Recover the amino acids of this structure.
């Protein structure tokens, strides 16, 4: 094994370090044309039980459950989680986000990014192995495959065998199951955008618009193709996160490792044999770790960019070790330092720094969300005429206030203008705005003749909910008037 | 587009696609004598080798798919010089369809309002809300967001109408526009007499002036100005001649402003909105404008957008 830096970079770049270079000089130049587009090799993943797979099953079911239940939750009169794109309003339980709240989405993405950094530096590709939707749905599809076509060996036999009645039935059952799950998940996905309690009856009565059918079909078929057919191809060739997570590993990152020192030289032996006397390590070369790998790699070749950190090989190898009577952990979560016999410090500056930034971002986000005022006011000054002078010497400026009530209920708002000793507000002072509505209010601000002011003065509008004093927004604008005589 | 440019575009477009196809086919396999799949391509990058790693074959499918898509697109839509495409799509046609869709959605709403008389519309909150927004988008540039106008642009809320304030008058002003023209009268009045006429005009609306000067101006007013403004100075809505006895002055009530009007004349134009707004929208704007002075006060409380059904 080489040092983590270059190796990690190599993993990220899809290249290999010089130490792992495949036998140099061995036909370094081709004598004939060889295809540079490789056919996908089918992966027949063996189903495996074990503590890590049980943990994965829990996270997968919890996450899939949250996703599937999400659109059915209610909040008052509406769907609790509803991304209403045509109206540009994103409802999230008691909150409604408008396009003006985009900053919250940016913060959320920053938090997500630092979480990824933190957890990847801590224990490798936890996201890929346990939480990524790709992993979740692929695993569900694999279970359907397992139910209909059997485990690895049966599937290999089935695929190699002729098209019998049983093969057709099993394949048909598998694809029917895949499609059914894909439609359920795809419909649920669409249900976050089009209220699902309204969507389902419309699907049942075939009353969707053309665009909605396309949306529904695209969401469902994308999942069918992805979790059924593409699987690890997405992780290996399409996913950017898979690649750049490799650059966040270091020598102290907990990752799925094969303990080369303990396992090599690998070889078959009988259970009763004294392998040390045979000159062998503890790896019996059964190949089970390869058979259970969803991306079809051999963990014994070292850390690879294809490894999604699902720990299936750990569960598989531990079973074999138990059977052989060897200690567990030939394949285990460990660090490169520990494998090299050096002390490992999990709590290293890099992790602390990621954690600190993450904590700060989460705190700021929570604080901002808590103090978010669900009211916005835009002040648009009439531009065509700078000001208006009345017969009695007063100066008037006209503004349009756009009052956006982002709250969940209707409010009456009181409009005020400051400084009150200089300006007088003409026009409506009380405006009722329904929940989620925008109202344009033309207002006129008058500066009486006796009031002294510079040609350009600051004027502040305050809009306050009559029944909720915390719902207050102040918005500044300019008040223009003529130059005082003699200047 | 001339035939020469058309062929230039066609050759360039198809040539580029052909070059992509050639490149794709050429790079499909290794060349004889080059590093084979998964062998080092050479070059040293901090001890890391770049390998000649094959792409998955479905990736080749994506390349072919994009080329097929582009050829299909060029066949169906205009893209190859002057070839219009089999679907006959045009951007103006798409705009026309969008307008049609809009009319289908909102047409019935406007049609319902178009059948109602202005007096009734002025009391309909939904109609007033639409009218207010049309006013904000089309009229407020000159008349102000509060419809109170300014120098040269009439105040629509004060109940004073140079061209008449009945619903029919207002609607006609919006649809066909108005042109208010007061010619320069310095020659007819005589420069020496201008201050006297100004004083008389000011006296009509009760301003404090030198009575002797005003009396001197009265004779000139009654020979020159009465033709339009009338013997009593109350104007004439058929000509748009303003009433000089009220407190509303389009160009100001100061002696200087009135004198300038007499010397140089005034010319105000309200453009016709029949073609800009359409009759049905103009009807709603007229209802809103009528409602402003019918209540003789500030604009009524604005209505909520959400009360209007479909978003506009």
């Amino acid at each position: 094994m080489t040092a983590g830096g270059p190796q990690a970079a190599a993993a990220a770049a899809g290249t290999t370090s010089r130490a792992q270079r495949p036998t140099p000089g061995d036909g370094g130049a081709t004598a004939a044309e060889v295809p540079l587009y490789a056919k996908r090799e089918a992966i027949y993943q063996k189903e495996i039980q074990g503590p890590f797979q049980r943990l994965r099953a829990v996270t997968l079911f919890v996450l899939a459950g949250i996703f599937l239940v999400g659109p059915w939750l209610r909040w008052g009169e509406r769907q609790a989680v509803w991304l209403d794109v045509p109206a540009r309003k994103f409802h999230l339980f008691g909150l409604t986000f408008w396009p003006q709240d985009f900053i919250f989405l940016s913060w959320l993405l920053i938090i997500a990014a630092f979480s990824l950094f933190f957890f990847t530096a801590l224990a490798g590709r936890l996201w890929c192995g346990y939480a990524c939707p790709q992993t979740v749905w692929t695993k569900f599809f694999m279970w359907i495959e397992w139910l209909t076509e059997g485990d690895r060996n049966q599937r290999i036999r089935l695929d190699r065998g002729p098209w019998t009645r049983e093969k057709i039935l099993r394949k048909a059952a598998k694809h029917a199951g895949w499609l059914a799950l894909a439609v359920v998940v795809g419909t649920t996905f669409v249900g976050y955008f089009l209220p699902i309690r309204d969507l389902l009856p419309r699907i049942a009565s075939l009353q969707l618009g053309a665009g909605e059918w396309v949306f529904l079909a695209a969401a469902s078929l994308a999942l069918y193709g992805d979790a059924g057919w593409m699987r690890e191809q997405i992780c290996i060739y399409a996913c950017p996160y898979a690649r750049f997570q490799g650059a966040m590993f270091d020598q102290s990152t907990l990752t799925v490792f094969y303990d080369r020192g303990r396992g090599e030289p690998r070889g078959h032996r009988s259970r009763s044999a004294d392998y040390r006397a045979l000159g062998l390590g503890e790896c019996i070369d059964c190949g089970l770790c390869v058979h259970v790998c969803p991306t079809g790699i051999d963990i014994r070749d070292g850390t690879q960019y294809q490894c999604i950190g699902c720990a299936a090989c750990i569960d598989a190898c531990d079973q074999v070790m138990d059977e052989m009577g060897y200690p567990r952990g030939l394949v285990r979560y460990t660090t490169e330092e520990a494998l090299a016999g050096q002390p490992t410090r999990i709590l290293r500056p890099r992790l602390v720094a990621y954690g600190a930034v993450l904590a700060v971002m989460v705190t700021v986000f929570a604080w901002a969300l808590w103090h978010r005022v669900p009211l916005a006011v835009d002040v648009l000054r009439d531009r065509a005429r700078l000001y208006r002078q009345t017969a009695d010497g007063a100066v008037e400026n006209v503004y349009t206030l756009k009052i956006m009530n982002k709250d969940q209920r209707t409010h009456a708002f009181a409009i005020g203008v400051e400084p009150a000793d200089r300006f007088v507000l003409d026009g409506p002072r009380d405006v009722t705005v329904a929940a989620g509505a925008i109202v344009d209010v033309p207002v006129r601000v008058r500066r009486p003749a006796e009031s002294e002011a510079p040609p350009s003065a600051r004027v502040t509008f305050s809009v306050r909910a009559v029944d909720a004093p915390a719902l207050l927004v102040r918005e500044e604008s300019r008040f223009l008037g003529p130059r005082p005589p003699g200047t | 587009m001339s035939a020469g440019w058309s062929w230039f575009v066609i050759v360039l477009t198809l040539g580029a696609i052909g070059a992509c196809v050639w490149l794709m086919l050429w790079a499909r396999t290794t060349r004889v004598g080059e590093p084979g799949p998964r062998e080092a391509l050479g070059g040293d990058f901090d001890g890391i080798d770049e390998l000649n790693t094959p792409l998955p074959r479905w990736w080749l499918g994506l390349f072919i798919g994009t080329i097929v898509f582009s050829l299909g697109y060029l066949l169906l839509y205009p893209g190859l010089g002057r070839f219009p495409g089999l679907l006959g799509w045009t951007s103006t046609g798409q705009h026309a369809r969008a307008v049609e869709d809009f009319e289908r959605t909102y047409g019935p709403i406007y049609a319902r309002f178009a059948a109602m008389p202005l007096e009734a519309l002025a009391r309909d909150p939904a109609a007033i809300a639409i009218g207010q927004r049309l006013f904000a988008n089309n009229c407020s540039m000159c008349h102000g967001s509060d419809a109170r106008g300014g120098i040269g642009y009439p105040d629509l809320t004060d109940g004073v109408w140079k061209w008449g304030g009945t619903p029919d008058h207002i609607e006609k002003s919006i649809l066909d526009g108005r042109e208010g023209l007061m010619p320069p009268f310095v020659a007819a009045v005589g420069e020496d007499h201008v201050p006297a006429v100004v004083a008389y005009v000011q006296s009509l609306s009760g301003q404090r002036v030198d009575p002797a000067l005003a009396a001197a101006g009265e004779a000139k007013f009654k020979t020159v100005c009465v033709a339009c403004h009338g013997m009593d100075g109350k104007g004439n809505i058929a000509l748009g001649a303003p009433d000089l006895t009220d407190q509303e002055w389009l160009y100001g009530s100061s002696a200087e402003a009135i004198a300038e009007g007499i010397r140089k004349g005034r010319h105000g134009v309200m453009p016709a909105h029949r073609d800009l707004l359409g009759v049905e929208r103009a009807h709603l704007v007229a209802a809103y404008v009528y409602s402003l002075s019918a209540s003789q006060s500030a604009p009524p409380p604005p209505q909520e957008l959400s009360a209007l059904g479909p978003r506009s």
Observations:
- The two ends of chain A are 82 Å apart (CA to CA).
- Chain A touches chain B through 58 residues (CB under 8 Å).
- Residues 375-480 of chain A form a domain with the Immunoglobulin-like fold (CATH 2.60.40.10).
